[in-house]
Design a protein that fits this description.
The radius of gyration is 17 Å and the shape is globular. It is built from five helices and nine strands; from the N terminus they run ββααβαββββαββα. The relative contact order is 0.18. The two termini are 21 Å apart. A hairpin with a 2-residue loop joins strand 4 and strand 5. With 162 residues, it is of the alpha+beta class.
Length: 162
């Protein structure tokens, strides 16, 4: 899902995480069980727990100079992303914060620990009427996107059938 022309967010679930692990095993032609276990250990924290959504945020630009500039400009992005379900605002919790340097990274793993009301809206609500948005309110970059019915149906499936 495109949040901004240079920022996309991919919601993760058990299937997408397993796919990533399998893709790495295949692309690196891994046979060693210890190496495979290492990838499983690395990617397992991306699995959403009960009552949360998991996602990967990508900051993408083909031009490396412009990408480096953007990564400096959106430093602190970890403190400025939220999911809004009706009147429930759920701040994203990023796996890592990058406050110790003057730029952020181009890939971030994050979770949305949902409130009971947000879970109700996403898992039981009328998906045609639900108003769910991702909102980025960084001082140097503001963007938002409303989740469409297909995205909401997918999230509902993730929450009700982990």
């Amino acid at each position: 899902m495109q949040l901004h022309p240079n920022i996309s967010i991919l919601f993760e679930n058990r299937d997408t995480v397993l796919y990533q692990i399998r893709e790495l095993i295949f692309s690196e032609d891994l046979k060693n069980e210890d190496e495979i276990r290492e990838y499983i250990d690395i990617y397992s924290p991306m699995l959403p727990l009960d009552g949360e959504l998991s996602a990967t945020l990508f900051i993408e630009l083909d031009n490396q100079v412009l990408l480096a500039e953007m990564l400096r400009r959106v430093k602190g992005i970890e403190h400025h992303l939220r999911l809004e379900a009706e009147n429930e605002h759920v701040a994203a919790v990023f796996e890592e914060e990058h406050d110790d340097r003057d730029f952020t990274t181009s890939v971030h793993y994050l979770k949305f620990p949902l409130t009971p009301r947000a879970i109700e809206l996403l898992s039981l609500g009328d998906l045609r009427r639900a108003s769910v948005r991702l909102v980025l309110d960084h001082p140097n970059l503001q963007a938002s996107v409303t989740l469409d019915a297909d995205a909401l149906a997918s999230l509902k499936e993730d929450l009700t059938n982990p």
